[in-house]
Amino acid sequence: MKIAIVCYPTFGGSGVVATELGLELARRGHEIHFITYSQPVRLALLSPNVYYHEVNVPEYPLFHYQPYELALSSKLVDMVKLHRIELLHVHYAIPHAYAGYMAKQMLKDEGINIPMVTTLHGTDITLVGNHPFYKPAVTFSINKSDFVTSVSQSLKDDTLKLFNIKNEIEVIPNFIELDKNTNDPSIPCQRSVMAKKNERIITHISNFRKVKRIPDVIKIFYNIQKEIPAKLMMVGDGPEKEKAEYLCQELGILDKVIFFGNSNEIDKILCLTDLFLLPSETESFGLAALEAMACRVPVISSNSGGLPEVNFEGVSGYLSDVGNIEEMAQNSLKILKEDATLQTFKENALSVAKQFDIKNILPLYEALYQKAINKYL
Q1: Does residue 227 share a domain with residue 242?
Q2: What is the pLDDT at residue 212?
Q3: Which domain holds residue 370?
Q4: What does the alpha-carbon distance between residue 242 and residue 215 come to, in Å, rounded to a whole number?
Q5: For residue 242, what are the CA distances in angstroms to 78, 204, 248, 258?
Q6: pLDDT at 261
C-alpha cells in the first residue's frame, strides 16, 4: 500500500505514534509518505520506503494568521497525484482531518477517490476540539472521515459524549516497539552518572503543560525523598518548567532534581529509572507510561482518562485520584523501599507492556487500511 501520514512532527505522543507506525509499516514493505511542516523528531533516518514532504506556508501581509490547512490540503492533492498514494491516515481531527477532507473533495473533482482514516489522540477532542469555535469543524471532520480510530476506550467515550458523531469509532491502542525500547538486563546502566548507589531514581517525562500537574510530580518526590535517598529526573520542556524549578528551590530539593529539557535519548534515561511518575489531570492513553513500562519501569499515575487501560493497579504500578499526592507518595514507597518488591514490579511492568507491542497492534491498522481501500474499489 502507498500511505500518506499526516501528523504533528513534535515531541508529543501523537507525533511519536504516527512516526513509529509509519516506520514499521515501511519495514513491512508499504510505501510511506510523511506530509507535515517539518521532519518528525523520531524520523532520524529515511529508508527506501519512507518519504518526507514538507508543507510550506507562504507568508502574505493580507493574512494575520497563515492558512496552514489550505497549504496542507493543496500539498496532499499534489502528493496523491504525483506518488499515486492510495490512502490518507491523518492524526488529529483538526486541522489534519479537516484539511484531508478538503483534499479528498479536490481530488474527487479530478476523478480520484481516496479513503481517509482519522486517528483521535486526545487534545483534538478534550481540549481544542471541545471549544465552541472549533466544535462544528471537529464534528464535521470526524463524520466525513471514512474510518475513525481512537487510542483508548476512554477517549472514544469522551468523543461520543462531547460530539454528535455518526461514524463508528474503533479503538486501536497506542503501542511500543519492544525490540527497540526494552532494556537488556545483561547490559548494566551507568546509574553512577546520575545518582549514588543507595539512591532510587525517579523520572517524569512530558511537555510540561498544566494538564501534566508538574507541581504534583515535585511534591510526590518531596515526600519520597524524606523517607528514602532519591533523585528526580525531569525530562521535557514547556510552560510549567520554570515554576517547577522555583518550587524545587522553595522545598530545598533543587540539588536532588535534574532538569534535562527535551531529549532524544529517552531509552537511556529510562534505563537508569526505578519509578515513573505521571499524575496528570487526564491522559487520553498515557504513552509516556507505556514507554517507561517497556523499559521495566513501574508507574505511579492518576486514574484519569485512558491511564487505567495501560497502568494495571497493583501489577505495573498504582493509580490514585487526581491530586492525591499523599497516596501517590505512599504507593511509590511501597514499590521502592524493598529491592525484591521493586524487582517484581519491574518485571510486571514489562509483562504488561508486551501486550502493546507494535507487532500486536500494527495488523489492526493494516486490516483497517485494506477495508478503507476496498470501500472505493
Answers
A1: yes
A2: 95
A3: 2-175+358-374
A4: 11
A5: 43, 15, 10, 13
A6: 85
